[in-house]
Amino acid sequence: MFPFWEVPAFTSGIFIALIASFHILPSHLATGAFWFVTYLEYRSIKENKPHYMDFIKKFTLLILIFCFVLGSITGVGIWFSATIASPMGLSALIHNYVWGWATEWVFFIIETVAIYVYYYTLGKIDSKTHLKIGITYAFASWMSMVVITGILAFQLTPGKWLETGGFFDGFFNETYWPQLFFRTALMFVIASIYATLVASFIKDKNAKGDITFKASLFGIAGFILMVLFSVWYVYKLPGVPKSLDFGGVLAYMKILNKMVIFSSVIVVGYLVYCTIFPRFTNPVISIGTIVVLFLGILGFEAIREGIRRPYVIYNYMYSNNIIAKDVPAKGIKAMGEKINKDGFLSTLYLIPDDFRKITPKNRLEVGRIITLYQCGNCHSMEKNGKIRPLPRYVSNLGMNAPEDLAVFLDVLEGYPYMPPFFGNEEEKLAVGSYLSTMVN
Amino acid sequence: MDLASYINSLRDPAGVPFYPFVFQFLMVLTFALHIIFVNFALGGSAIAIWGKFNGNPHALRLSKALARATTTNISIAITFGVAPLLFVQVIYDPFWYTANTMSAWWTLGFLALVTMAFIFTYVGYLTGKSNEKGGNIFWIIMALVSILLAALTMHGLSEEQLHPDKWKEWLTQTGTLKTSGDALYAILIPRLTHFIVPSFAITGIYLMLYSWLFRERKDFSTEYLDYVLNLGVKIAFYATIFQVAAGFWWLLSLPSHLNFIVNHAFLFGAFLGMALLVMLAMAQADPKKYIFPSAILGFVTVFFMSYARETLRMAYFKGVNYTIFDYRVAVDWGSAILFFGTFIMGIIVVAFPAIVAFNLARKGQQN
Among all residues of chain A, which has the CA nearest to that of B5? Predict the structure, then answer.
């Protein structure tokens, strides 16, 4: 096991959640915007409408800064945050999908070069060539989505990979196509909202109305498709039609569902408003809508994460980076049996040497370390922690003897959203002792 | 369990899906490209600041051009940085993930610093765009400081990886396991210097290329371009002298048992560095003739220095019996072909916008 990084009260996963959720805005804007931009540019060339090009210049600058600054950095940031919160989980994705990621990188280069050239040559080269650069960008950026979706979908539904270990078996898994279509529709929605935001700054009412109207139609079309594809997507999720909230056990999943629905209603309401009153939009309302959209995305990502629980890669690796299942085709062995036999400490090396043997003196501290490793990805250790505080949960169990809590570890397996505890009897007692200090 | 078998246990059980030397080659190549643009962003923003204070109108004009170029440079540096970041995780995962989890807040800090550098350069560029005197230099200074701190952080994270024998000491010095991720444990100033000084050599060479690129343009005066060319060749020359000195400093700071001084990759890189120095010395008299030879030799030197850096890493890891060449390989041809096919297609596609941009820069706006 790699060293463990503890984030008080919030757990390390909070950074992945925030960065990855935020990244959805710039990444989908980057892939969606140019289908609309190139359409406008085409109309502008054909009908000689220079005000379209004024808008395009501003919109492209927004994309350059928002997507190619914040988007690129949060994209890399997902790797970095996964590195420090779930190193083995990321390592598994990297080692199986390195060529997929490298392929996406090629499209990322095309995108980057194309968008800069598009921006800096706007109005300076002949318009047909310029339009072609825009189309190159639109296509390359969407291709990066085509590739990355496979890897993201793999994490949720590894499909036949679990038997064959094959790259494409994991890539084209059961949620790949619904996710790709869903994200493609979503990118139109996100791009259209940002387009109306940029258009809302235009002074000339006619130009503003014209562009806002077109952009919002584009978004409404995306929204309708998104709703259709999301039904398909949900239907293909693992454990569905098993209900999304683990049969009502996890109340907060219901709240997340409501968050997503609320956000969708606001978004579609905003887009409809833009088609009816395209001349009367203003930046504050648009930005407000984007904030609500972001909350919806946060909720949606939390649901996805919830469905995946207790795994970081579904059915393959638990959230605490312990491999759950043999993958004979890859020569991979589940780790549980060995850990139960040799002890969890056998997987650690970077600990004080006298911790190797559990004694009454170090029992609590060793218990704390094992608890961090096995529970700390999902539970914070502080009484008033914000993310599933273990002291509160353990206190609610109504037991406080170390031995009883050690026995409780054996029933963890029965919870659908938690991994079993792995370790030998001594270690269970150490964890039990540590947990008992949490009870008040 | 000993350290070597612990490190092995951190490897991904799936093995690697292609021959390790291919990942290694791609890593070295893309790292060279990455570091060139990092250097250029760093040197470019430093010279932009200098030009603003210099008072010479040519220097001011150059300062504006460099401030603008820095936005693109950071972007390209990130784009090229993604690839070595990917490949290092494939072949050096035990070291990469350990260093980052040990110093997790620094990893996040690195992200924040790059974001800040990026935003500051954009603010500097956008506020200076329509201003005769250029933007508020404060932003470019802030950007430079952010880039330097980001460089320091990434340097520390890399240096930590080279000392697995110290990991345990670092993490257990408090008597228990440290999980706070708040310390950066290893910094080696000579090494860091050797990564920062070339910024000026690279930027100097870039200035030489710049003077060539805009030579035919009517809106660029000969005096201005000659000024930039002469400035470039001087900066490149003096920076290379310092770079050679920093190189020796680093070399002397290395543990003697690594015997790096007889390492072939290093010797070849050092030879190229010297050759570059000689060429830049000759170029002082008539820089125009040496623009392309210097640029090509400069790039080749950076590539071989990256390669030397990689062989240094291999030398360090011999100490813990780690070599990438015994990573379990399960070749996956399908996905490898997907990548290489896309890569070739990508070069062809990228050529289109790149040529358009090149022609526009060279000839200026036609209509």
Answer: A349
